[in-house]
């Protein structure tokens, strides 16, 4: 009896991903650690000084996490309602935060109770930050105000009421201690100077502004709102340099790496895009489970923390670099020890014993070998195989059709199995590599289960989806044939014109030769 030959799964060519230095670098992060918070994470901020703890603002609490800790090492919970935008000062000693009740609170990073409380906003405060002189705080709220506060005296220095909608983001200049920027849902970004009574620059973003970011040099400003990330030249009066539209939904957060050469943006489309700040092209992207609200990168680029709408905190750490030092290992046998005797040629009187090669068959191969066609088909209709390796499912169907047992394998199925089968066929029948086999399968399914049409709403729905998919594909093929016909007509016209021009040139040349001969 001949040995069973496993089903041959045809290998389909795949487009290879271009591997760059950025790809290798950003892939050098470990598997993420998931931390569950009490609510949506609206802000993540790293301490600028070692050991680079980070503050996470979610619900009515602010949690401080260590770099590798999965439990908060400190909690600030002195909020009646939601807390917003917990931000570290440049020296990492103080922490400021806004709240739903309109108060701005100042905390000692090593303590728990608030040191200062600033009253002046009448609605929730979503934006809080320190100016670079470390003694003043700016804030923005849903009352359309942008306020500046003095920390030692806990008093309001100045209040700007130039926005016409909620103020939801802001940042301070690291170069000039009097300059800070706010972004609002009125589609504008305003640059304020504490020495003046009004804004010194207004930039129209075109969409509600969700996040703003100032480069360390202070010359470039990045704003995010809608699906757009825009870069502005502040030194040229707010001139637009580039507009990026790489996200499919609203961009909610921005971040720079430590060198300022890479810009990161997070969005509700569950992606984090990484741009080069020289070409502003996407060099890498991360995909997450749910919509992203906040994003932060540690000062040494060692940790990426992403906060999501479902309250999950996603933390990725860089893999430690491999040390080049040669570790003292136990001396292994020489190479000749392993290859000894491989070139030995058996003599005539020798008795050779061949070691049988054990073949490991997959589940569907074992069932096919025992002629269990229906169970073999069930084995390849499991969701992991159908979703990730559909070519295996189609290969088994093709083998069953070759054996002549496909119809019997498809028959005698209940509502759930027929629904699963039709879902797979309707989804994959339009792929050219699967179409020849799946058209035959669809034809058989229609013949077998036609008498029971109308008895199950679920099966009827799948039949309609299959009909719709095939109808769309037919229309698409007809359009392609029409385009092909148009192109053939155009090519034929060009060919005729070219032939006519050549004939005219030949005739003109012959006439000139005849006239020249006559003159002579």
TrEMBL record:
Keyword Repeat annotated: yes
Organism: Myiagra hebetior
Primary localisation category: nucleus
InterPro entries for this protein: U3_snoRNA-assocProt_15_C, WD40/YVTN_repeat-like_dom_sf, WD40_repeat_CS, WD40_repeat_dom_sf, WD40_rpt
Described purpose of this protein according to its UniProt entry: Ribosome biogenesis factor. Involved in nucleolar processing of pre-18S ribosomal RNA. Required for optimal pre-ribosomal RNA transcription by RNA polymerase I. Part of the small subunit (SSU) processome, first precursor of the small eukaryotic ribosomal subunit. During the assembly of the SSU processome in the nucleolus, many ribosome biogenesis factors, an RNA chaperone and ribosomal proteins associate with the nascent pre-rRNA and work in concert to generate RNA folding, modifications, rearrangements and cleavage as well as targeted degradation of pre-ribosomal RNA by the RNA exosome.
Domain U3 small nucleolar RNA-associated protein 15 C-terminal: 344-490
Lineage top rank: taxon: Eukaryota
Keywords: Nucleus, Repeat, rRNA processing, WD repeat
GO biological process: positive regulation of transcription by RNA polymerase I; rRNA processing
Name this protein carries in UniProt: U3 small nucleolar RNA-associated protein 15 homolog
PROSITE patterns noted in UniProt: WD_REPEATS_1 (PS00678), WD_REPEATS_2 (PS50082), WD_REPEATS_REGION (PS50294)
Recorded GO CC terms: nucleolus
